[in-house]
Write a structure and sequence with these properties.
By secondary structure, the chain is of the alpha+beta class. The protein contains three helices and six strands; from the N terminus they run αββββββαα. The chain has a six-stranded antiparallel sheet. A hairpin with a 5-residue loop joins β1 and β2. α2 packs antiparallel against α3. It starts with a helix and ends with a helix. This is Pupal cuticle protein. InterPro entries: CHIT_BIND_RR_consensus, Cuticle_Struct_Prot, Insect_cuticle.
Length: 145
């Protein structure tokens, strides 16, 4: 159930990330055809898919466990530029990367220091997620360059 939710979330995010074009019956978008398509679903939940259309859209995604996925998609924007987004979708959410996407500003030193202090002496709460804190610290360190 959880893996289906992640896959569905990733597919929704992919469809929302591409620029929305107005459909005009008989227009070029309505005449797009699938040039190639492959998919594979394993009994253990692992899967992969890939497709390419005649209007320049392509996508691929792979999951080795049915819950965590990684992939990429590309499309031509209304400005004629080819856009590419690579992403992972896992327990930390949908994490896209693309040259055209905004980047997180550098983290203030006091915020990173505070999180590192918590890491050195984590709370005793059994619900505290140390892996999530480590991932956040690593992500924020990357904003520093």
């Amino acid at each position: 159930m959880y893996s289906k939710l992640i896959v569905l979330s990733a597919l929704v995010a992919i469809s929302l990330a591409a620029p929305q074009k107005r459909f005009t019956p008989g227009g070029l978008e309505s005449q797009a055809v699938i040039l190639s398509q492959d998919q594979n679903l394993e009994p253990n939940g692992a899967y992969s898919y890939r497709y390419e259309t005649s209007n320049g859209i392509s996508a691929q995604q792979t999951s080795y466990d049915g819950a965590n996925g990684a992939g990429e998609y590309s499309y031509t924007g209304p400005d004629g530029v080819q856009y590419r987004v690579a992403y992972t979708a896992d327990t930390y959410g949908f994490q896209p990367q693309g040259a055209h996407l905004p980047v997180e500003p550098p983290v203030p030193d006091h915020v990173l220091k505070g999180l590192e202090d918590i890491r050195r002496s984590p709370p005793k709460d059994p619900g505290f997620n140390l892996a999530a804190l480590d991932a956040t610290i690593a992500r924020l360190r990357n904003t520093l360059g």
